[in-house]
Inverse folding.
């Protein structure tokens, strides 16, 4: 390696002679960090804390890192353990996106493509887009435009209100004529009734004539208001369309400039990589994550990838569940297609997401009758078949009750969650139970063990959730597009820096309890063993402990309990 490359290669400061190398490379989407990767991350964290080269506001307390003014932004960092051609073991370091408004820092590998370098087409294109933004903003803020826009909106609103009122009057008059017509049919002579019908018809035509006349007048007023507004509005729309075209062209060119290597030296651009996906186009920020940067630098410099780990540094982001110093897998939406190419020809650890960990676990029957079965689902067994794993509560119930009719599954538990599920054995029971779930008439209680102390004895968590499009199946807290998600909680005990707690979900969103426990706006205390929003362990310590519902045949209220095993 030359001198410049050597700067990016970091020798371990600690003695690693007794640490055995992994036999396979880290499966990046679900892993426990290898000891070497953990050590590399610890040394990297020490560097971040003590360096004086740059300042970045991570939102951490001042005694951890000097804060800058501006918005606090936490960041993913990564360490890639590598082996040199001579057999030395060291590591590379990277950050996602940019750090302290720069792509280049002494200890970290460079980006796959540097869009911030002086004279780059992306910066030039960005300047052009900024100029268009300023022109649009100037036009939209002009007093004349604002007044013309207000006139048009006011006219539109007045027209809609007036015509709606007149339409209502037309309907009411039509009803009155109908009443008069029916009364005349029974009370008037045939000739008088014919005269009445002619009068009512003339009245109807008169009302319709005046309505059409008013409608025409309003349309003329709207056309005049729009004609006054159109020149400015058309110019603004032309600029916005020009901005959109430039932005798309700039983004597509940028995606073409990102070219990723693999072990065999094969190169693929972002555009080519994502052309093979359902999206057909890379999401924003693709290629800027730590893992692709690290692997690219390793392949460019003939370094053999040994192990990978990525961690979050800084305050939690508003939507995702990310906690300071916590390890996280690579994101699937942005990184999976890229890493699929980059890691081809490299032997990876087993993908535990494809392993049926519930295969040997038995389903316990808690209650059984002609209409339904209540079971205790073991942790790690799917409720319904997945893409890769078919074994599930559904398939086992289908095999056990071959004469059952209907969908069988009326509600679900996460694969990692254990506890009570109610299985309807016929369509009538399914429909009866489904209505109770929809109308929130079924009471469920969960017990969980949390990794930390919850200060409040009880309360309600109200955080709307939606799926993370870049990292399924994870969920995000989203107040704009999320679905309402509400959970009551009550602390049972606090012991050994852990909290045993009851959850009472008032809604049934995916991962609701896990996110409400982990998110900093919720309890900020992950469930023990939560491999998505906390730290992986032997199992997720979340159990559906009891359920209350009305039986479809006896109409009696049933309450069934099942104690947790943790």
């Amino acid at each position: 390696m030359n001198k410049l490359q050597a700067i990016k290669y970091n020798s371990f400061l600690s003695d690693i002679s007794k640490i055995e190398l992994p036999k396979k490379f880290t499966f990046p989407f679900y892993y426990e960090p290898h000891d070497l990767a953990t050590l590399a991350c610890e040394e990297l964290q020490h560097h971040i804390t003590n360096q004086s080269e740059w300042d970045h506001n991570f939102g951490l307390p001042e005694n951890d890192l000097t804060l800058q003014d501006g918005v606090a932004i936490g960041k993913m960092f990564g360490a890639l353990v590598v082996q040199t051609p001579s057999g030395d073991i060291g590591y590379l370091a990277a950050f996602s996106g940019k750090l302290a408004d720069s792509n280049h820092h002494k200890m970290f590998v460079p980006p796959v493509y540097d869009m911030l370098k002086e004279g780059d087409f992306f910066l030039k294109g960005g300047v052009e887009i900024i100029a268009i933004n300023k022109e649009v903003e100037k036009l939209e803020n002009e007093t004349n435009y604002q007044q013309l826009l207000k006139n048009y909106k006011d006219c539109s609103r007045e027209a809609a209100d007036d015509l709606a009122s007149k339409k209502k009057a037309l309907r009411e008059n039509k009803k009155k004529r109908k009443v008069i017509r029916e009364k005349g049919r029974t009370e008037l002579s045939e000739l008088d009734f014919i005269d009445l019908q002619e009068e009512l018809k003339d009245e109807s035509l008169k009302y319709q004539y005046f309505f059409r006349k008013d409608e025409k007048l309003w349309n003329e007023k709207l056309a005049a208001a729009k004609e006054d507004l159109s020149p400015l509005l058309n110019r603004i729309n032309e600029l916005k369309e020009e901005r959109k075209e430039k932005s798309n062209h700039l983004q597509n060119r940028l995606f073409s400039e990102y070219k990723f290597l693999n072990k065999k030296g094969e190169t693929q651009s972002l555009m080519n990589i994502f052309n093979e996906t359902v999206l057909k186009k890379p999401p924003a920020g693709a290629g800027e994550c730590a893992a692709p940067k690290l692997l690219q630098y390793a392949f460019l410099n003939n370094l053999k990838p040994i192990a990978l780990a990525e961690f979050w540094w800084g305050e939690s982001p508003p939507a995702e569940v990310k906690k300071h110093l916590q390890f996280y897998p690579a994101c699937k939406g942005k990184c999976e297609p890229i890493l699929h190419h980059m890691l081809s020809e490299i032997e990876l650890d087993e993908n535990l997401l494809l392993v049926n960990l519930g295969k040997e676990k038995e389903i316990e029957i808690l209650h059984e009758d002609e209409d339904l079965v209540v079971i205790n689902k073991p942790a790690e067994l799917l409720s319904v078949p997945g893409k890769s794993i078919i074994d599930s509560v559904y398939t086992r119930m289908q095999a056990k009750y071959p004469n059952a009719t209907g969908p069988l599954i009326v509600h679900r538990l996460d694969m990692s969650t254990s506890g009570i599920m109610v299985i309807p054995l016929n369509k009538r029971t399914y429909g009866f139970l489904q209505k109770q779930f929809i109308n929130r008439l079924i009471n469920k209680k969960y017990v969980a063990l949390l990794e930390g102390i919850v200060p409040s004895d009880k309360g309600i968590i109200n955080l709307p959730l939606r799926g993370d499009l870049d990292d399924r199946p994870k969920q995000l807290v989203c107040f704009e597009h999320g679905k309402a998600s509400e959970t009551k909680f009550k602390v049972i005990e606090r012991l050994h820096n852990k909290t045993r707690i009851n959850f009472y979900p008032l809604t049934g969103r995916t991962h609701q309890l896990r996110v409400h426990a982990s998110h900093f706006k919720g309890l900020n205390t992950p469930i023990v063993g939560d491999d998505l929003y906390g730290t992986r362990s032997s199992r997720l310590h979340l159990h559906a402990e009891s359920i209350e519902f009305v039986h479809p045949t006896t109409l009696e209220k049933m309450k069934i309990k099942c104690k947790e095993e943790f």
In short: Confidence is low (pLDDT under 50) at residues 1-5, 63-68. The CA atoms of residues 104 and 110 lie 6 Å apart. The two ends are 52 Å apart (CA to CA).
